[in-house]
Each structure stands twice: as structure tokens, then as C-alpha cells.
């Protein structure tokens, strides 16, 4: 990895494949995998296990911890791939704050598929009754910097290949040089630049 996308956040609703994809992408890129769920406090996990969705106040301290992880990694030049729901635009902007070159891979999965995946796994705290609230909170990334949207119904290997290819292309486009602050918005097959990066970040 290089400083253009020193960190990748794999995002989306419960069950969309964040951990599976982030883990595989980290292994392919030689980066560190971070499981965002491991940074939730016990109260948050208990809340979800009991069938109540998290609200902003529950998520902010968690996002602060994850943002600190990304910032530290960015300062050390350590490549990382984080699995984190990052459902809302302002959550993603918080993660961008300390490491502006972070890229996002949004795993786009329909609600029925997410419910099926969450319902069929065992030993996880997340009940499928919370899928509706995940989609209620989800703000799909549109015109956000360094963001790839992937059809998460595709096989895992194909998704990982797409993410790796996107990372390579954004890195090549940025050329390691003075354009590293540019934003690259990629929707499969089409790349366009928006510069500088802060023009595309708003606090919604
Ligand atoms: N592309 C895929 N196709 C089919 N099944 C998948 C795919 N990716 C992941 N899965 C399966 O879906 C389930 C959820 O995957 P995973 O735990 O990676 O998602 P997640 O978004 O991290 O979930 P959560 O945030 O709820 O922990 C797992 O059983 C996993 O094996
Ligand atoms: O922001 C949130 O509501 C949470 O991070 C959830 O997305 C879960 O932790 C995760 O998906 C586990 O199923």
C-alpha cells in the first residue's frame, strides 16, 4: 500500500461481508486487519444483543477509538484495512479526519440478503431483527472521496479482486506525488477526479 490509500475502511450494514472482505484484502495487500466490532464497548454489544439498535451517542466513542487507530496507523505509515459499519456520512467524515487519504469500500447488499446472512449464522451478538434499523441508518455514500461501491451479492473472491484492483488504480492515478490530496470517486469502470479532497467532504 502507499500513502494514497494508507487505510481502507470496508463498510456497510450487518452481514454485508465487511469482516470477510477486509480480512482478505488486508492479507492480499500485506496490511493489518482491524475488526471494528472489537472496539465496541460491552454496553453497545449488549444493547445490540438485546435487539436495540445503536444510536449516534452509542457510536461516537466507538468511532473516536477507530479514528485514533486509523490516525496512528497513518502517522506510522502502517497499512490497515478496517471492517466498520460506518453507516452515516458524518461517521465516515469522522474517520477521515485524522487520515484524509482513507479509502472506503461500500458493500452494497439488499435487506433480504443481509437478513438471510445474519439469520443463518450462529454465535454472533447481532440479531436479524436489527437489520431494518441498519438500513434505516444507512446513508449510502454518494459523491464521497475515494469510495468504491461493490455489489456485495457477488462471490467473496470477486469482491476482493475488485477492491484490490480499485486500490491499485487509485494508487496509480495518484502517482505517489503532489496529487495525493485529490479525491477519486470510482463507480465501476469510471474514475473521475475531484480536487481538493475537502471540497467533497461535508458534515451532514
Ligand atoms: N460475498 C459473500 N457471499 C456470500 N456470503 C458471504 C459473502 N461475504 C460474507 N458472507 C457470509 O456472510 C456472513 C456475514 O459475513 P461477515 O461476518 O464478513 O459480514 P459483516 O458485515 O462483517 O457482518 P457483521 O458486521 O454483522 O459482523 C458470514 O456467514 C459470511 O461467511
Ligand atoms: O453501527 C452499528 O450499528 C454496528 O457497528 C453494527 O453494524 C454491528 O456492530 C455489526 O454490523 C455487527 O453485526
UniProtKB/TrEMBL annotation:
A Pfam family matched by this chain, by name? AAA_33
| Pathways per UniProt | Carbohydrate acid metabolism
Q: Which GO terms describe its molecular function?
A: ATP binding; gluconokinase activity
PROSITE patterns attached here? PROKAR_LIPOPROTEIN (PS51257)
Q: What is its EC number?
A: 2.7.1.12
Q: Does the keyword Cell membrane apply?
A: no
Q: Which reaction does it catalyse?
A: D-gluconate + ATP = 6-phospho-D-gluconate + ADP + H(+)
Which family does the record claim for this protein? Belongs to the gluconokinase GntK/GntV family.
Question: What protein name applies here?
Answer: Gluconokinase
Which organism is this entry from? Answer: Trinickia dinghuensis
